[in-house]
Amino acid sequence: MLEEYKSQLTTHRNTLHKIPESGFEERKTSDYIQSVLKKLDVNYKVVEKTGVIVYFKGSKGNKTIAFRSDIDGLSVEEKSNNPIHSEHAGYMHACGHDGHMSMLLTFATYLSENQSQLNDNVVLIFQPAEEGPGGAKPIVDSGILKDYGVDEIYGIHLYPVVEQGKIGVCKGPMMAMTGEFDIDIISKSSHGAMPHEGIDAIVIASELMMGLQNIVSRNVSPIKPSVITVGKFEAGERRNVIAGSARLEGTMRAFDKSIYQLMKARMNTYLEGLEKAYGVTITLEVRDMYPPVINDANLVDKLIAAQGDGVCEIIEPQMISEDFSYYQEVIPGVFYFVGTYNEALGHIHPLHSSYFNFDHEALYNGFRSYVNLLQAGGSIDL
Asked: Angle 97-113/27-40 helices, nearest 10 degrees?
């Protein structure tokens, strides 16, 4: 019965894959979502410029279950083997959001065609700007979850680390809290032959690079996973000039909010010490991004039981981040991975890769997981 929806999954994915757009600018994407919903004649409204909320009222309405898809693309030039390519130069659905939307749109069709059997209320959230600056928080802050009385929420992500045909999930921390930091060192330049007359920013930055790693290895408990990574280092003008400035850019991640705050505090203290030791000015800017994704244990059990034997596998927490976490701060929720790894088809590339692609059978697996959740929980009678 469910297999009749496979063609819809493919049609939606191929259409949406052509029109990736940046956060809060997903106008063509939103228009397409709305065009599908209008044909279904369902109750929906536009939120946060390009987001779309769909509401299905159940006959009993004992509870309300929400399902969320992100809708934005990435500034990546596509090089995948997908015969359908992005038509927006410099942009690509390199994180599978076209697939996420396809699954939720097809689920909307399924619900509209079976609404007479629906017992509980269902809310579908097509959310903008997951990749940045973040669309989940404005939706939560607007009170939409309270307005619809949402009791629990599920989010899905195609994931090439998990084998196609499997669902990856875990209880508790699933994805990390994350932040970005920029460190600027203002020192004193001099001729390379007279280093004593300057204060070398490269030497200070190099010491700083090593010191930041000590925060994780010596200030954080070894059983509390955390990461500080410097991914960009800029300094110097010429080979024979002592650098008068340097800039480090990086990211920090942890599953525990208190550990994240500890890393920030130790970073500040360490930089203050370097300023005094070298007589320079060091500035630090930290941009806190998304909270950690914390999966509700009871809902994870519900998800696993609904999918049947051998479908779900417990995976290790991932240091990547997701703004789905904002929903989980106010209501119980589960975020889970639908596997896309398929070596035979060449679907082995990571998220955000210009080569990222997946088999449409994975979309069917994700769509079916939604239906299984409703059926197993008694939310729909079929």
From this structure: 20
Cα distances (Å, whole numbers) of residue 37 to 14, 43, 91, 114? 17, 8, 25, 15
Q: Is 81 exposed, middle or buried (0-12, 13-18, 19+ CB in 10 A)?
A: exposed
pLDDT at 61: 87
User: What are the tokens at 382?
Assistant: 């079929």
Interacting residues of 199 by C-beta distance below 8 A, sequence separation 6+ = 187, 188, 242, 244, 278, 279, 280
List pLDDT tens digits, range 267-289.
999 999 999 999 999 999 999 99
Cβ pair 211, 201 in contact under 8 A: no
CB 172 within 8 A of CB 299: no
Spacing of C-alpha 25 from chain mean position: 18
Q: What is the 3-state secondary structure (H, E, C) of 24-45?
A: CCCHHHHHHHHHHHHHHCCEEE
Helices (H) and strands (E) in the chain, counts: 10, 16
Alpha-carbon span 382 to 370, nearest angstrom: 14
Tokens of 224: 């509390």
- Kindly list the distances between the CA atom of residue 71 and the CA atoms of 68, 109, 168, 190, in Å, as whole numbers in the listed order: 10, 18, 21, 51
Does the annotation mark 296 as catalytic? no
Query: Cα-Cα-Cα-Cα dihedral of 322, 319, 348, 307, to 10°?
Result: -60
Establish whether 249 is a catalytic residue: no
Query: Six-digit token pair at 228?
Result: 């500080």
pLDDT digits (tens, 9 = 90+) for 228-270: 999 999 999 999 999 999 999 999 999 999 999 999 999 999 9
Q: Which residue has the tokens 């044909």?
A: 39
β partners of residue 211: none
pTM over 0.85: yes
Please identify which of the residues 26, 70, 120, 152 carries the catalytic annotation: 70
HSE-CB at 315 with a 13 A cutoff on CA atoms is: 22
Find the catalytic residue in 21, 48, 98, 131: 131
